[in-house]
Design a protein that fits this description.
The structure holds two protein chains of two kinds.
Chain A (H helix, E strand, L loop, with lengths): L1 H16 L8 H18 L20 H28 L3 H19 L4 H19 L6 H32 L4 H9 L5 H17 L9 H7 L2 H26 L4 H23 L5 H22 L4 H30 L10 H4 L1 H15 L5 H15 L3 H27 L12 H19 L2 H4 L3
Chain B lengths: L6 H24 L8 E9 L4 E7 L1 H20 L8 H20 L3 H21 L5 H28 L9 H9 L3 H18 L9 H7 L2 H22 L5 H28 L3 H21 L3 H32 L11 H4 L1 H15 L6 H15 L1 H26 L15 H19 L2 H27 L3
Antiparallel strand pairs in B: 1-2
Helix pairs in contact in B: 1-2, 1-3, 2-3, 2-9, 2-12, 2-17, 2-18, 3-4, 3-9, 4-5, 4-9, 5-7, 5-8, 7-9, 7-10, 8-9, 8-11, 9-11, 9-12, 10-11, 10-16, 10-18, 11-12, 11-15, 11-16, 12-14, 12-15, 12-17, 12-18, 14-16, 14-17, 15-16
């Protein structure tokens, strides 16, 4: 709660900071503000501070898991801010707005991971999404960017419509907006078709947001068209928040009626995995490949949700953390190289291994983590997802997951191959800003630590 | 493990590290008690809540393989000395990293640790093969990587499955996984078996999972090929012995006939193709494939001779194949390009020392008595023969076929008149000779005194085999 209040406040402060002449303090200001919120979040870990006092109506819960997810989201926010420097300050006429949009969008994400009331979920989704529509279209003069924004907006609004309709139906069936109330209604013997329908609509809305198939069609175009920086934010924060929200919904709210939705979700998970991985093979643009990769990761996380046992939440948390580090690293590499070349196909990566070995190293480790090779956080995340699936008897899902993992190696290897094995035309070193360097280091260390010492984190929860 | 150093001294640092490691291993070797226990154990909890620990240890079998890896590394590193490489520091760092991964595989006493090291060994070899490989490296190494990962991921599923069946508090310790495997029903044992077998069969390779091997061995830079065929291949064989046979005995018993037949097919198939090869590097690659088939068959024969034969052959084959590739490498670099066997000849006139070394490792490979190949091949053939005499005879053809292609290789490259390509064949440099020396000496040492090695592995091998055989007979009496 503290984090939500603080972050909103700072977001607005940042906006006003844009009025003064010195643009150079915007990034440090945004960074420091977010850092303060991060610290405040951690304070909430053992003993949540009740900010609202007597106004608290119990619509939000803060517990260790929520703090964990919030931490991941805030780290993603921090990393994107660090990456931003030259980009936002250089190109945009009102740079302060972009920092604020990032922060305010994060507020929505935090609401999504700690809600206890469906209206807060809706509020969170909207607060997260609407700024994202703006960010997707941030390059006002780029046709692709405009296309991305429009597509995202239209599809997203559509999805939100489904979400709201689902909320209404569920209310109609159970008489409750709160997750506790829904749980009670579900525990009753007879489930009305209205409830099932409501759940279906709710899920459709949420699955749109996390780009699960068959609601994924917007993802490649939007990820490719949006500026790389904001794509990084989109693919990490939105996914993490989305899956945390779906898990909360299904475990706390609709927990009692698990068999009803688990098969449907399992099928969706399989389709998502298939589509995400198989289509990624044919891509020639790295950003688009990453878009399909994010779709396939949505599939893996769905497996953990389908499993729905005590281990699943930890698995999703860990997976999100590993996925966030790896994806931001990958997009950071893309961002840096792209700034240099102003294109976004694979050729810009040729020869990077020679000119910028560190960049190549981080890119390779990121790809290995996304592929799930041991030594990286991605592997432990996948391991946890697999374990939770086995424990709930969904072994057959794992065969698909493993086959698709093998397929994914092919397109994940493309980046290291391009960077390390292909020759470049020019030999100039690509300049990496200090902010970007810090981001790359943090992601690298994060991925390796998550890969070697999972104990440090799992013992916290 | 060594991090990247400055280019010119990197190779010496790497060599020093490898020699230091060898020294450590030799100390362990001499202090090794000849019993079946797991010695030099080291265990540290890694993820205690999940029952996974960083535990290492070696019994006789592991000891031999650790010894192999340690003794080959200096030779492999030395063989790379003369050739100009880009980014040498990274090259040597990757080689040492690979060695750590390999050691870890042989020493791991915990299922997840085993998987961890298995994959860790894959990454450096992939980069070694792809960055420093020759023209077709990108499609070939990608195929290698994906094919291997495919097997490994199924192995992960099998290990995971076993792990989750170890009882209320899951544990990945090797003895618990054994217990879990044996408690499974027939169908489940088959699944676990197939998953584990996939990984090992692809790695070794066994027919018909071998299609990645010839290309990868040929396109990779020779030091990488030495690592692949000398040590990494043994990972697969070791996996069969340590992580397949004792784990799912009923399934092992069921699938043995098929596997032995496939292995024998592989032996003949590989040998015949080797005879047809004109590229010397590819020829040695196929010979490696043929030899590995015999190891697979011998292990599944479930006879002590077969198992002991396979273990000692792992060491002998490692030594021989590294020596062979070294000779091939020397010829290739002197001649300057990849040549047909018929375009070479008369090298012995220019470099008698190469001839001697080449001949020694070659005879070892052909399994001439008094060389290191002989005890291994003899024991393995005995094992297969005891399983089924006909298959034993067919497998025995490997000796004849092996002699054919190896001697043909030797004769056409070394003897005869000098050809245009071999006109100016330089003598062996110091480092090249030094790389050969330990290998050649071991060929003879192991040939004359195989018991030094056999006695170390015997207690552990016997214990493992009696364990497996009794588990098999137990499982046969159980209901599905």
């Amino acid at each position: 709660m503290l984090s939500i209040v603080l972050l909103s406040f700072f977001g607005i402060v940042n906006l006003f900071l844009g009025f003064q002449k010195n643009k150079n303090i915007l990034l440090p200001a945004a960074f420091i503000f977010t850092l303060i919120v991060f610290a405040a979040n951690l304070v909430d870990f053992n003993q949540p501070i009740d900010v609202f006092g007597e106004f608290n109506t119990g619509m939000l819960t803060i517990d260790k898991i929520t703090v964990g997810f919030t931490a991941i989201i805030l780290v993603a926010n921090l990393l994107v801010i660090l990456l931003a420097d030259k980009y936002i300050l250089g190109k945009q006429s009102q740079p302060a707005e972009y920092f604020s949009i990032l922060m305010l969008s994060t507020v929505g994400a935090i609401m999504m991971v700690s809600y206890d009331h469906l209206l807060i979920l809706f509020l969170g989704v909207e607060t997260l999404s609407i700024p994202m529509y703006v960010l997707a279209g941030a390059e006002k003069r780029n046709l692709r960017s405009n296309e991305a924004a429009l597509k995202y907006f239209l599809m997203g609004a559509f999805a939100t419509g489904f979400l709201l309709f689902g909320v209404a139906l569920v209310y109609g069936a159970t008489g409750a907006f709160s997750l506790a109330g829904i749980k009670e209604a579900c525990s009753a013997a007879e489930q009305s078709p209205l409830l099932i329908l409501g759940l279906g609509f709710l899920l459709v809305g949420m699955l749109f947001k996390v780009s699960a198939a068959p609601f994924h069609f917007w993802t490649p175009d939007v990820y490719q068209g949006a500026p790389t920086l904001f794509t990084a934010f989109m693919s990490t924060v939105v996914k993490t928040a989305g899956f945390a929200a779906i898990y909360r919904l299904l475990s706390s709210g609709f927990g009692p009626i698990v068999p009803t939705w688990s098969i449907a979700l399992a099928v969706i998970a399989v389709v998502t995995l298939l589509i995400g991985n198989l289509i990624a093979i044919t891509q020639t643009s790295f950003k688009r490949t990453m878009a399909y990769s994010s779709i396939s990761h949505a599939g893996y996380m769905l497996i953990a949700i389908v499993a729905m046992n005590g281990f699943s939440q930890e698995a999703i948390l860990y997976y999100s953390a590993a996925y966030t580090f790896a994806t931001i690293a990958a997009f950071a590499v893309q961002h840096v190289v792209e700034q240099h070349h102003e294109r976004d196909d694979f050729e810009i990566f040729h020869g990077v291994g020679k000119t910028n070995p560190f960049l190549a190293l981080v890119g390779t480790v990121a790809m290995l983590s996304l592929a799930g090779i041991p030594l990286t956080g991605g592997f432990i995340g996948k391991l946890m997802v697999f374990t939770s699936a086995y424990q709930s008897g969904f072994g057959w899902l794992l065969i698909v997951a493993v086959l698709m993992s093998t397929v994914s190696m092919y397109y994940y290897l493309r980046l290291p191959i391009a960077m390390l094995l292909k020759k470049t035309v020019t030999e100039e070193k690509i300049s990496v800003s200090p902010g970007a360097s810090i981001v790359l280091w943090i992601c690298l260390i994060g991925t390796v630590v998550l890969g070697l010492f999972p104990n440090l984190f799992t013992s916290l929860f | 493990m060594v991090l990247a150093f400055k280019s010119d001294i990197a190779k010496y640092v790497a060599l020093a590290a490898a020699v230091a490691e060898l020294a450590v291993v030799l100390v362990a070797f001499s202090g090794f008690a000849t019993n079946a226990d797991v010695q030099y154990a080291f265990s540290m909890p890694w993820m205690p809540e999940w029952g996974i620990s960083f535990s290492l240890g070696m019994d006789g079998i592991s000891m031999m393989l650790v010894f192999l890896a340690a003794i080959l590394m200096p030779s492999i590193i030395l063989s790379a000395f003369n050739n100009e490489k880009k980014f040498p520091a990274v090259f040597y760092a990757l080689m040492l990293l690979m060695q750590s991964g390999l050691m870890g595989v042989f020493l791991a006493q915990d299922g997840f640790l085993f998987y961890f090291f298995w994959e860790i060994a894959l990454i450096p070899i992939y980069f070694l093969a792809s960055i420093w490989g020759s023209e077709r490296k990108i499609p070939v190494t990608t195929k290698f990587f994906i094919y291997t990962i495919f097997g490994s991921l199924f192995m992960l599923l099998s290990i995971l499955y076993l792990y989750l069946h170890t009882g209320d508090t899951p544990s990945a310790a090797i003895s618990d996984l054994y217990r879990a495997g044996r408690s499974l029903g027939h169908l489940e044992q088959t699944y676990v078996f197939l998953g584990l077998f996939a990984a090992f069969a692809i790695k070794m390779p066994l027919f018909p999972f071998h299609t990645w091997q010839p290309d990868t061995y040929t396109e990779a830079p020779t030091p990488a090929t030495m690592l692949l065929s000398g040590i990494m291949l043994k990972m697969g064989v070791y996996g069969l012995i340590r992580w397949l046979l004792p784990v799912v005995p009923w399934a092992v018993n069921e699938w043995t006939p098929i596997i032995i037949v496939l292995s024998v097919i592989g032996i003949i198939y590989g040998s015949i193709i080797a005879i047809r090869q004109r590229d010397i590097k590819r020829l040695v690659a196929y010979s490696s494939f043929a030899h590995v088939g015999l190891m697979g068959a011998a292990i599944f024969s479930l006879e002590i001779e077969g198992l002991q034969g396979a273990i000692i052959q792992m060491v002998a084959h490692g030594i021989n194949v590294v020596g062979l590739f070294h000779a091939v490498q020397i010829i290739r670099t002197r001649v300057g390009r990849t040549l047909d066997i018929s375009d070479l000849g008369g090298i012995t006139q220019s470099s008698p020392s190469l001839t001697v070394y080449f001949m020694l490792v070659l005879l070892g490979s052909v399994a001439l008595p008094l060389t290191n190949g002989f005890p291994g091949e003899f024991l393995m053939l005995k094992g297969v023969f005891m399983y089924n005499p006909i298959l034993g005879v067919v497998a025995g053809l490997t000796i004849i076929l092996g002699a054919v292609y190896m001697l043909r290789l030797f004769q056409s490259t070394m003897f005869g008149p000098k050809t245009e390509a071999t006109q100016n064949f330089a003598k062996l440099t110091f480092s090249e000779g030094m790389a050969f020396f330990p290998l050649a000496s071991l060929v003879l040492l192991m040939g004359f005194f195989p018991n030094i090695f056999l006695s170390i592995t015997e207690p552990a091998a016997k214990a493992l085999l009696t364990d497996v055989v009794s588990a098999v007979s137990n499982s046969l009496t159980l209901k599905p």
